[in-house]
């Protein structure tokens, strides 16, 4: 069903307005109303919903019992699961695997990126998380790490649009490759790395844009060896973080919020997202959902069950203003990926939005002007 307009407290790039948002042909055509403060929004007795930019998640492995690496119609099922939690656009994220398996996954993702199906999030492209990572810092990635190759990446890109690549900058040739990848139009993140602080700084100087799931699967901060975490905290403008409060302690999240201006949230969600406890696939691994998390048999965290609506609530629960939290589940990721027409409720942008009650429970989702059936 095509959405036409909504009245509420609309979060524009300039702040909240009490008014109306209208769309035409999938784009926002007008936002009118009276500017109000967040305090006025929170204390208002008017029964008006909150209207925020749709959530953007650049790190999604699965959901609804399906895994990106399956191929077939898995991506469609994943996009349907996450849109029901407010994610209006996402990057389908691969696992480290033999090259033939990555090719198979991308071959299935190509059509899913070209056409958005009804009641689904927009799949913007692919986040290639590996195989160009350090085999000594796999985390939950299978042990198929390999040396990066630009021609290989271009061939994969021909199957499905690769928008983001995670790699370990300390591996031979990867620093030089970062420059070439940026020149070719790919965004690059530092992750699954045993690199030093100096390696991180060098990678940022070569054009790496951010860090994959900050704190996780990277060298930690020590006052004499700042490590990759230290490079991020000292120098990064952007970085992913998984705010399920399981991957990263709330105190560490607060440190990162004070240090990285545009830190943004990802779910790193697996097939277990939106599903009951049990066993699920994560690439070649079998993982178990239990006690609120997803783990390998040895106890290693293996992605999450987080959804972006819960990420928003977790941030606000930590004390962030709704406007700040909204940027971290939407606008900053859009800026980072160069998406000037998403992540903001402004005239000319895609009509991607979420409608929430005062408890930040989801009441409605609109993707490119289409109202999503949340049933």
UniProtKB/TrEMBL annotation:
InterPro entries reported in the protein's UniProt record: Amidohydro-rel, GlcNAc_6-P_deAcase, Metal-dep_hydrolase_composite, Metal_Hydrolase
Q: What is this protein called?
A: N-acetylglucosamine-6-phosphate deacetylase
SUPFAM superfamilies hit by this protein: Composite domain of metallo-dependent hydrolases (SSF51338), Metallo-dependent hydrolases (SSF51556)
EC numbers listed for it are 3.5.1.25
Q: Which UniProt keywords apply?
A: Carbohydrate metabolism, Hydrolase, Metal-binding
* Keyword Zinc included in the entry's annotation: no
Q: Which residues form the Amidohydrolase-related domain?
A: 50-369
Gene3D superfamilies per UniProt: Metal-dependent hydrolases (3.20.20.140), Urease, subunit C, domain 1 (2.30.40.10)
UniProt enzyme class: hydrolase
Pfam assignment, any one: Amidohydro_1
| UniProt GO MF annotations | N-acetylglucosamine-6-phosphate deacetylase activity
PANTHER family according to UniProt: N-ACETYLGLUCOSAMINE-6-PHOSPHATE DEACETYLASE
Leader sequence range is none
């Amino acid at each position: 069903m095509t959405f036409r307009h909504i009245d509420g407290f609309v979060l524009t790039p300039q702040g909240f307005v009490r008014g109306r948002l209208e769309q035409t042909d999938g784009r926002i055509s007008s936002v009118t109303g009276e500017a109000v403060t967040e305090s006025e929004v929170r204390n208002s007795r008017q029964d008006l919903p909150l209207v925020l930019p749709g959530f953007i998640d650049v790190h999604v492995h699965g959901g609804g019992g399906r895994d990106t690496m399956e191929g077939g119609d898995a991506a469609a099922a994943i996009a349907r699961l996450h849109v029901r939690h407010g994610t209006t656009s996402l990057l389908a994220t691969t696992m480290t695997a033999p090259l033939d398996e990555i090719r198979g996954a991308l071959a299935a993702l190509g059509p899913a990126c070209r056409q958005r199906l009804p009641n689904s999030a927009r799949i913007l492209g692919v986040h290639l998380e590996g195989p160009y990572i350090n085999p000594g810092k796999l985390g939950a990635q299978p042990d198929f790490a390999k040396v990066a190759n630009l021609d290989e990446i271009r061939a994969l890109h021909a199957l499905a649009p690769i928008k983001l690549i995670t790699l370990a900058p300390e591996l031979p040739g990867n620093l030089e490759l970062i420059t070439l990848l940026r020149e070719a139009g790919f965004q690059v993140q530092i992750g699954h790395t045993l690199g030093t602080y100096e390696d991180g700084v060098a990678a940022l100087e070569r054009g790496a844009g951010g860090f994959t799931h900050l704190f996780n699967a990277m060298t930690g901060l020590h006052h004499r060896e700042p490590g990759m975490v230290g490079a991020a905290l000292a120098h990064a403008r952007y970085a992913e973080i998984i705010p399920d409060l399981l991957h990263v302690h709330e105190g560490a999240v607060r440190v990162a919020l004070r240090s990285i201006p545009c830190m943004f949230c990802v779910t790193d969600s697996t097939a277990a997202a939106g599903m009951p406890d049990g066993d699920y696939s994560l690439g070649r691994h079998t993982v178990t959902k239990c006690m609120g998390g997803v783990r390998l048999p040895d106890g290693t965290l293996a992605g999450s069950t987080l959804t972006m609506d819960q990420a928003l609530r977790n941030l606000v629960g930590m004390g962030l203003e709704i406007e700040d939290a909204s940027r971290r589940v939407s606008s900053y990721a859009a800026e980072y990926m160069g998406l000037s027409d998403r992540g903001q409720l402004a005239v000319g942008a895609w009509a991607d939005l979420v409608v929430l009650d005062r408890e930040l429970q989801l009441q409605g989702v609109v993707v490119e002007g289409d109202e999503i059936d949340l049933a």
